[in-house]
Specification:
Length: 223
Amino acid sequence: MFSYVFMKILEGRPRSYDRIMDKVSRGRVRAAKEAVAAETPAGAHVLEIGCGTGELAEMLVGMGSIVEGFDLSPSMIEAARERIDEHGLGGKLSVRQMGVDGMDTLPNAAYDAVVSTLVLSELNPDELGYALRHARRVMKQGGTLVIADEVVPRSAPNRALHAAARAPVAALTYLVSRSGSRPIADLAGELVRAGFRVEKEERSQADAFAVVVARPVEEEVPS
Ligand SMILES: C[S@@+](CC[C@H](N)C(=O)[O-])C[C@H]1O[C@@H](n2cnc3c(N)ncnc32)[C@H](O)[C@@H]1O
């Protein structure tokens, strides 16, 4: 489970990121992406927040979707572009180097779905709220938001165990990469505050990992 903490180190090695993450996490990271893909409508126009090397985006393209991804890391975007060239995904997958703070440049009500795996836990609280509000804005009516990420367990004993076991790995990761991630304390609450209704939340890994499906709350049109 604590392989997620190591991701910050692997992010500096985008060409081996997916392969090593898959090994270190014993397939869990890929399984998380498959779970997100399974909840995303097929044949959709999809925005991916923090697309990394484009592994999830490629799965979605395989389901007939057109995907636009963005990521803060230039080297991740370079690896995603290599994937596009090598796997002939041009025209179906496009990526750009951009942080969530650039989401205000995205058009209103343009996407059927917005997806993200293991990115929101790398954002600070302001960025997280900002990203979710813009995810809501750019989504069409009835759209689908699917998120998979590390979250804080709900019960006190699970929380204490998780925090104690995660701390040494997080410290080591910070020493090596000078950066880190934090499990999201109240993902459902963040979603509601951003204008979403949580439709489904599946927890696994001692309650410390969540796949969440949410839909925009429709604004009432005055009659
Ligand atoms: C753990 S990786 C996950 C990548 C990909 N979603 C996956 O699951 O393979 C986290 C990604 O979030 C990106 N990221 C971190 N902060 C970001 C931000 N503020 N805006 C956009 N992307 C960000 C990182 O560059 C990195 O590619």
